[in-house]
Amino acid sequence: MADTRKGLLSPFVSVIRARSLTKRYGNFLAVDGIDFDIEAGESFGFLGPNGAGKSTTMRMISAQSTRTSGTLDVLGLDTNEYGPEIRAQLGIVPQADQLDEELRVFDNLTTYGRYFGFSRAHVRNRAEELLDFAQLREKRGVRVSELSGGMKRRLTIARGLMNSPKVFLLDEPTTGLDPQARHILWDRLFRLKEQGTTLVLTTHFMDEAEQLCDRLVVVDKGVIVAEGSPRSLIQQYSTREVVELRFGSSRNAWAAEQLVGIGDRLEVLPDRVLVYADHGEAALESAVHRGLEPTSSLVRRSSLEDVFLRLTGRSLIE
Question: What is the pLDDT of residue 70?
Answer without folding.
Answer: 98
